[in-house]
C-alpha cells in the first residue's frame, strides 16, 4: 500500500503546484510572497521528479526481469 501513498502525495503535489502557479500569475502578489511561492514550487517540482524517476526505475526493473508478461496479461 505504500505505492498508493506515493500516488496520493504525487497528485497532492501537482494540485499544490497548480495553486502556486495561479498565485504567481496574479499581478497583485508582492515580491516577497512571489519568491516564497516560487521556492515552494521548485521544491515540489523536485519531489515530483524524484517520484517519477523512482516509478520509471521500477518499470524498467519489471521489464528487465521478465515481469512485463504479468503486466500484459492483466
The domain tally reads 1
Shape: elongated
Low-confidence stretches: none
Task: Indicate the radius of gyration in whole angstroms.
Answer: 17 Å
Please characterize this protein's 3D structure.
The protein is mainly α and 74 residues long. It has one domain (2-72): Helix Hairpins (Orthogonal Bundle). The protein has 3 helices and no strands. It is elongated and about 55 Å long.
Give descriptors for this structure:
74 residues; mainly alpha; Helix Hairpins; 3 helices; 0% strand
Can you describe this structure in just a few lines?
The protein has a single domain (2-72), classed as Exonuclease VII, small subunit (Helix Hairpins, Orthogonal Bundle), CATH 1.10.287. By secondary structure, it is mainly alpha-helical.
Secondary structure layout:
Elements (H helix, E strand, L loop, with lengths): L1 H24 L5 H34 L3 H5 L2
Helix pairs in contact: 1-2
Amino acid at each position: 500500500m505504500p505505492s498508493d501513498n506515493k500516488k496520493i502525495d504525487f497528485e497532492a503535489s501537482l494540485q499544490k503546484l497548480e495553486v502556486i502557479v495561479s498565485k504567481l500569475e496574479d499581478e497583485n502578489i508582492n515580491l516577497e510572497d512571489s519568491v516564497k511561492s516560487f521556492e515552494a514550487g521548485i521544491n515540489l517540482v523536485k519531489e515530483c521528479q524524484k517520484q517519477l524517476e523512482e516509478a520509471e526505475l521500477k518499470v524498467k526493473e519489471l521489464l528487465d526481469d521478465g515481469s512485463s508478461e504479468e503486466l500484459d496479461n492483466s
